[in-house]
Amino acid sequence: MAGIGHNGGPNQLGRGWQRHCWTQSRKALIGKRMPIEVVRTRINRARELGLEYPQYASILLGSGRDVVGFLFTVDGLQLRLRKRLEMPDAVQEKLKGLERVQLMGFAPSGEDAEAFRAEVSHVAGVPFVSTAPEAEGPLGWSAARVAVRAVLDPLQLPSDAVVMIGTRDHEAQMAQAAKMARFIPSDAYFVQGA
């Protein structure tokens, strides 16, 4: 409990102490070099997620969590509506190759989210487990968090364990506002390691 004269602000020593403890614990557990078994396990997990190892390692270091899901925007899935919803073959193949990760998406504005979830699951050939309406244009930080949480809350997923795949700057800002593990541009995600 703070004493007389304390302004009620945050403990300035907390972050430094936490960082020190984390560093010491990691050194005690792993040593100076990471065991090759750990590296191999991480490389295999990156492959399961369709990520390059440096991207995956960066997400682990940044969030301290494994990736449990991908949240796709409509443009991020490169969907095209002609007479029916279409998805490029390369996108379908990449999605079908993912393992041990949940797929979620934003439904185009004005569409029923559940109907879109069923349709995109059918077109992709893999199940999408949650969708919510896509927010229109740039949003404030609070509205961006609410939009992302609308997809993640039904699954009780932490945002820092989910990667957003999209195309627009405001989508990257949404991911940042929601404190997601990472935002990856769609072209970079679906083209890499092709």
Helix/strand structural class: alpha/beta
**Strand sequence of the main sheet, in spatial order?**
5-4-1-6-7
Radius of gyration: 19 Å
Return residue spans where pLDDT drops below 50 for at least 5 consecutive residues: none
The CATH topology assignment of the largest domain is Rossmann fold
What is the strand and helix layout of this fold?
Blueprint: H1 13-30, H2 36-49, H3 53-63, E1 69-72, E2 80-81, E3 85-86, H4 89-96, E4 102-107, H5 113-124, E5 130-133, H6 141-152, E6 162-166, H7 169-177, E7 182-185, H8 186-191
Parallel strand pairs: 1-4, 1-6, 4-5, 6-7
Antiparallel strand pairs: 2-3
Protein architecture, described:
By secondary structure, this protein is of the alpha/beta class. The protein folds into 2 domains: 13-61, no CATH class; 65-191, HAD superfamily/HAD-like (Rossmann fold, 3-Layer(aba) Sandwich), CATH 3.40.50.1000. It contains 8 helices and 7 strands, in the order αααβββαβαβαβαβα. The protein has helices at 13-30, 36-49, 53-63, 89-96, 113-124, 141-152, 169-177, 186-191, and strands at residues 69-72, 80-81, 85-86, 102-107, 130-133, 162-166, 182-185. The strands form 2 sheets. It has a 5-stranded parallel beta sheet, with helices on both faces. A two-stranded antiparallel ribbon has the order 2-3. α6 packs across α7. The longest helix is centred in the first third of the chain and has 18 residues, at 13-30. It is flat, with a radius of gyration of 19 Å.
